[in-house]
Design goal:
Pathway: Carbohydrate degradation; pentose phosphate pathway. It comes from mine drainage metagenome. It is found in: Cytoplasm. The chain is of the alpha/beta class. The chain is built from 4 helices and 3 strands. A 3-stranded parallel beta sheet has the order 1-2-3. Helix 3 packs parallel to helix 4. The termini are far apart.
Length: 109
């Protein structure tokens, strides 16, 4: 799967470059079995991001409580995320708040 994602990221790289990162992304998910394990989600997401070595690769993270915790950490560490499994406004707000906290931590670092 990782080789396919690298190839897809390479196909979309010109779009990513031309739009300064607004478009041209591909996405790879962490194991759904990790939906309730923030620490392992972070570890797997970081590993996938590093192994893929493509700037236009999102890592899909579920919008579960553990996923929200992972989102903050991943954004802080510079790993782009695509949040999935958001079914109501409460989950969306929690994910957005985690994203913003991660950005604040990254800017303060």
């Amino acid at each position: 799967a990782l080789d396919d994602l690298r190839a897809a990221a390479d196909v979309f790289a010109p779009v990513y470059a031309r739009t300064s990162g607004a478009d041209g992304w591909v996405s790879l998910e962490v194991s759904p079995l990790l939906a309730d394990d923030a620490a392992t989600t972070v570890a797997q997401a970081v590993q996938l991001h590093e192994r893929a070595a493509r700037p236009n690769l999102f890592i899909k993270v579920p919008g579960t409580p553990a996923g929200v915790e992972a989102i903050e950490t991943l954004i802080h560490r510079g790993v782009p995320v695509n949040v999935t499994l958001l079914f109501d406004a409460r989950q969306y707000r929690a994910a957005a708040a985690a994203y913003l906290r991660g950005l604040e931590r990254r800017m303060d670092a």
